[in-house]
Backbone:
């Protein structure tokens, strides 16, 4: 069962029995729980909606077997369960057998293993709902929905910039957008300048932005961004790892250019967002393959230098930056 089918079942009030909700997108999962709760009689919802965390099997079954209080259905939400709990239910013949009035939602943080007895029991019944990571289109819809709820304006280009800046984690995306919406107030417009002023960029966005600034020759701006990232507590090791990944993407693009491949073919090779691929190709033109390889080697050494106690993590990162963009700088048209 996919998300759409699950929402359709909520809307038609046809949910019955047990369901497993899992996957990396926690905000969408939490929204689904809100929708299920909304199926209940509002004035009695708190009496017929019971969240249980890591319950004992007997306590869980007692809750499940309780009749609804002046309503047609009851919802029991279970989190923090393990295979021992599931095994005990299976031994009692109650892993998937529940009263028709009770909806049981097993909610797994992250993704559950397909070897889990609960997954294997509910999957053939089409009662496993996976909440996959957001893609750009779904993230855009989420921002637009939040904008409507908060009565603020944001155009598509700015919404996409926000998404690229903060990432595709649902909770983080909504939290960062709420900062921008609160800043402009109801009836206001969230602009790119507002996004840059009040939201916190992800380490991935920050590292890519620093690399791109330095490749563009905007060294003062690149070093300023690096300093700000380290001052606010971004991990030097994490930034180094992301910079290695970024430089590897640039190297792929550079090698493709050297082979005479056209831009469309290189974008296909890089995959991901076509707009991001455009800037990757643009910046790859500014460096030779050899200089990019040296940069990859320099940032890769950050981890080894820190583990061996040669440098502290911040010092090792700064050394890699200077070695890549100052000591042996090369540009290629």
Residues:
């Amino acid at each position: 069962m996919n998300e759409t089918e699950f929402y359709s079942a909520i809307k038609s009030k046809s949910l019955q029995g047990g369901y497993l909700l899992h996957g990396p997108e926690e905000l969408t999962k939490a929204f689904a729980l809100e929708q299920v709760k909304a199926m209940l009689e509002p004035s009695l919802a708190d009496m017929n909606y019971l969240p249980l965390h890591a319950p004992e099997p007997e306590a869980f079954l007692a809750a499940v077997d309780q009749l609804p209080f002046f309503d047609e259905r009851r919802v029991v939400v279970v989190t923090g369960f393990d295979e021992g709990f599931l095994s005990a239910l299976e031994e009692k013949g109650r892993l998937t057998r529940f009263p028709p009035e009770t909806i049981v939602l097993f909610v797994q943080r992250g993704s559950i293993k397909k070897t889990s007895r609960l997954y294997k029991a509910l999957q053939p019944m089409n009662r496993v709902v996976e909440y996959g990571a957001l893609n750009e289109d779904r993230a855009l819809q989420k921002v637009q929905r939040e904008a409507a709820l908060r009565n603020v304006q944001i155009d598509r280009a700015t919404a996409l910039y926000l998404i690229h800046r903060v990432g595709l984690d649902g909770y983080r995306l909504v939290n960062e957008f709420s900062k921008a919406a609160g800043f402009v107030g109801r009836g206001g417009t969230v602009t790119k300048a507002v996004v840059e002023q009040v939201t916190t960029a992800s380490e991935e966005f920050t590292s890519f932005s620093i690399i791109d600034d330095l490749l563009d020759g905007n060294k003062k701006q690149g070093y300023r961004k690096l300093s700000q990232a380290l001052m606010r507590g971004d991990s030097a090791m994490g930034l180094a790892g992301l910079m290695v990944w970024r430089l590897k993407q640039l190297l792929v693009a550079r090698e493709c250019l050297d082979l005479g491949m056209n831009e469309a073919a290189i974008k296909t090779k890089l995959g991901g967002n076509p707009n991001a691929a455009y800037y990757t190709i643009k910046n790859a033109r500014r460096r030779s393959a050899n200089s990019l390889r040296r940069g990859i080697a320099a940032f890769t050494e950050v981890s080894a230098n820190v583990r061996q106690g040669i440098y502290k993590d911040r010092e090792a990162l700064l050394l890699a930056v200077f070695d890549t963009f100052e000591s042996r700088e090369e540009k290629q048209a």
